[in-house]
Amino acid sequence: MNIFTLSWKNITAKPLNTMMSVLLFALSIGLITFLTLLNDQLKKGLDNNLAGIDLVLGAKGSPLQLILNSMYHIDAPTGNISLEEARPFLNPKHPLLSGAVPLSLGDSYGAYRIVGAAQTILTFYNASDIEGRPYKEDFEVVVGSIVAKKLHLHIDDTFYSTHGLEDNPDLAHDHGTPFRVVGILSATGTVLDQLLLCTPQTVWKVHDHPADSTAVEEGHKKEDHESHAHATGNHVHTSMPMVAIDSVEIQILADSVMAALSAQPEKEITSILLKFKSRTNFQALNLLRNINLNTGLMAASPAIEINRLYAMMGSGTEALRYVAMLIAMVAAISIFISLYTSLKERRYEMALMRVNGASPGMLFRMIIGEGLWITMLGLVLGMISGHIGMQLAGSILERGYKYQFTGFTWVGEEWYILVGAVAVGLLAAILPAIQGARTDIHKTLAEG
Predict the structure, then answer these.
(1) Quick one: how far is CA 13 from the chain centroid?
(2) How far is 166 from 71, CA to CA, in rounded Å?
């Protein structure tokens, strides 16, 4: 029987004590693993959605709310802005700007946001492939990969939008022209995956209807809404090949949208995404301050606001991390007490082992082995539970943050968790191991 097999038999001889130490250690490791996965995926998601955007223009209010609403689509708009006031920033010949994407928000389908935007939003977020084609006409829609999967949307499916972000049939615009799916994007790893894209004019037309057409009869509720939703059973879906998105075509389509917006200065949009020609240009760097001081608009910097968000989130996750570390310390103390108590109870047994030829080093390794067994069981159980917890929480987090979270991933920081856990287990076992190796054979046998 080798020394580690003997260590295993020793810890399983008292299963309740061992189980308590393992569960405490697993709890701390699981919590730390969950927080590590959450922070890593949340940061990557937020960073991916920055998309090189330098400024967001919108109505006066909270800059962070404007960023979350216009770039991450997880908050309500701060209000609308007039095209008359926004027109200078939509000018393709603006000396400081290389690109501008106007956004019109307000409706959704299946709790996924419908965004009226110029087609250049696809190039802003580096969308590369599409099944079908980009949207050209009003009420044509391009849907993100996650939306298509979750709502079972296919090319040529039609549906009606719902006011706001709730999937509430009572708020459905179930009249007039339905939306029609003309394109499905390949996965981008950005917020585009969870959006439905159309022209800004489409969002206006959904809401620009005669007052008498909004009257809904008492019984005209969920059944009618569902009858207007896309019906997969009414026609056969044919999959189309993915094709590369043509940036030249996208620019031509976006120019057409911009021209249409310029012809209607009395209309309103929600916000504008802006990119600078040069981030080192002094005038560009002062544009945010000049807009906020000299116009009725509000400009917000995504980089600044997301750093603020990191700081706010960091305090909460840091507090939870300290709690997990405290639990880990308690678990280490539990391992120490378990081994130390077991050592005192087995002193006579160890003395007999010494008499039968076991060296002090062998006893030292046996007790270290016991500590490592408990540590490794807690580590494996904790890391598995952390990943499972992340996977189970993924759907809830996805609804809030609008991109996917998964427990089926490994991040680099988990190596530090692994090394740290083993180090904690060794530290907890080393003192009992030293005492066990120094067992006084004659004294112990005499007392026995």
Answers:
(1) 44
(2) 19
Q: Are 97 and 57 in contact (CB under 8 A)?
A: no
Q: Which residues contact 436 (CB under 8 A, 6 or more apart)?
A: 343, 350, 363, 364, 366, 367
- The backbone region for 196, taken as left when phi is positive above 0, alpha when psi lies in -120 to 50, beta otherwise, is beta
Q: d(Cα 371, Cα 421) in Å, to the nearest integer?
A: 11
| Residues in a beta bridge with 163 | 107
**Cα–Cα distances in Å, from 29 out to 108, 321, 411?**
40, 10, 15
Q: Contact at 8 Å (CB) between 94 and 280?
A: no
Q: What is the pLDDT of residues 174-215, one digit of tens each?
A: 677 899 999 999 998 888 999 999 999 999 888 775 444 443
Cβ atoms of 299 and 288 within 8 Å: the answer is yes
386 close to 33: Cβ distance less than 8 angstroms: yes
More confidently predicted of 61 and 395: 61
Determine which helix (DSSP H) or strand (DSSP E) holds 269, and give its type and residue range: strand 268-269
3-state helix, strand and coil shares in percent for the chain, rounded to the nearest 5: 55, 15, 30
- Distance separating alpha carbons of residues 10 and 345, to the nearest angstrom: 12
Q: In this structure, are residues 67 and 305 in contact, taking their beta carbons and an 8 Å threshold?
A: yes
**Residue 211 identity (one-letter amino acid):** A
**Residues linked to residue 55 through DSSP beta bridges, in sequence order:** 274
pLDDT value, residue 219: 40
Cα angle 344, 348, 351; round to 5: 110
**What is the rounded CA–CA span in Å between residue 154 and residue 132?**
10
3 state SS of 387: helix
| Straight-line distance from the first to the last Cα atom of the chain, in angstroms, rounded to the nearest whole number | 25
Q: What are phi and psi of 113, to 5 degrees?
A: -70, 135
